[in-house]
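QA checklist item 7 of 12: single-chain prediction sanity check.
[x] sequence parsed
[x] length recorded as 572
[x] structure emitted
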Amino acid sequence: MKTKRYLLFLVCWFFIPLQPAFSATQRGMDVVPPATADLTAWGTYHALIIGINAYERWPRLQTAVKDASALRNVLVDLYGFPEENVHLLTDKEASRLNIIRHLRHIASGLTDQDNLLIYFAGHGQIDAFTSDGYWIPVDGFPKEPATWISHSLLKGILGSDKMRAKNVLVIADSCYSGTLLRGGPSTLSLEDGLYESRLAKAASLRSRQVITSGGLEPVSDGGRDGHSLFAYYLIEALRNNDCLVIDIENLIHTSVWEPVVRISGQRPTVGRLKTPMDEDGQFVLMHVALAEKRKSEALRAQESQLKQKEEEIQELEARKKQLNAEREKLVEEQKRIELERLQLELERQKLELAREREALEREKKEAAAVKYKENTKNESKKEMKEPESKTINMKLAKLPLNGSISSVKIALLPMHISNQTSGLGGILGSVNLSAKDTIQHLSSLFSNAEHNFVIFSYYPIKSNNSYDIIPFSLTKEEVNSIWYRKSIFSLLRLNLQEALRIGKELKVDIALSIYSEKRTINEIISEIIIIDINSGEIYSSGRRNTSLDWYGDFIAEQSRAQLERYLADISQ
């Protein structure tokens, strides 16, 4: 054993003169955490990643910080390492105290289901006295091993039976990092059809694995694209890996070892930490980003297949419709002549029915006109004998409402009832006008027991069996179009064309509407308008002032007057 240690000392003594103890072209060792894995299958992953360029007393390195940052991003972005579990220490953060404190804190909190990856990129050194390897922290002193971090200390922490982590991986990209190793790799074959099941079994065993960028020799700080040669090919291997799960030893042997040896002569090494806690298990990486990509591709493929099937179904349905249409066309062709014959017969019968209705309506109007003349004579005689009464019922009694107008159909159109007032009268006014109140004043006009009116009403009216009520409705646009102004300053007018259109659709004889506007507390302007739907003639009372006390009488009186004018005209 002493002879072997002596030979190791001679090897180190031989290399040290050839390569200065610290050089800007040599690298320290880096500790990286394991790549992300499926937590349910492989446990929880943690990482401590260290990269030092700006040494306080050793030559500055060029690529260590970039290597550490790039590896951290690959592990988080592609391999699903939880971001909160990955600790990155660079330059000033990577002091001896801070590195050891983070390592002990992480190691003491791990369980037997956890995985830990440590990566170190920085200066490394061998103590000629103890033959022990060291990582040089940012505040380390040259030729002062007490200010360095020894491999023995790392093995003491990671190999302790108090550190319960299932799998631990140390990746050291530094000079003389080979002193961490014992034994060789136990690589599984990727070609083995049972690789994943064998890998799962190996991952269930404890492991303390080490990957170094070189053996007992200095390693280069230069490489490709701002990375060390070892870090460049390690990061590229992780990015280009097309296996969903892979053990770290296979990744190094298949993608890193050969190009590093061929280009630089530097020989990356895979082995085990010198500790009884290692049970030849395996540190496993799961390519989470690749799994998500393949899952997305599979979903897109399924969507494409479904879309193709939908298109096929649509084509079949279109063909089915076409065949049905062709079949129906044949049937329709056979029925066409019969249908045409029935249509002609129907049109003939409709025309005949229309002529009969016209004749009947003409006879009704002639009879109504004759009866109206008789009633007018009788009413004139009554008025000469009876004094005029100011009650509504007595005024209505003088209306010649008898069988002559019982056949008249009346449409009550939307009215313009406004409570707008001005001046002091508007403030003190207490009586409101409404379409409901106005119609109530008219109700006695239609409830003459001797006559049977047919009232088509836009407003809800309760029938008292003295006249028939047929409600109808209008759209908001139709209601708004009943009344209009020619300009901003003109008076509100009834839209004759719209009133005629509605009356013709309802097939009534006349349309009735009322304009009422309260100007002051005692003054109302009112107008009663009747339109003959057949002739388009307007019978208007004109806009007249009245008082609130006389408003109901005025509405009834003027409505009666307009009906008399209308009946007088149609009787001529």
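[x] summary fact logged: The first strand starts at residue 29 and ends at 31.
[ ] second reviewer sign-off
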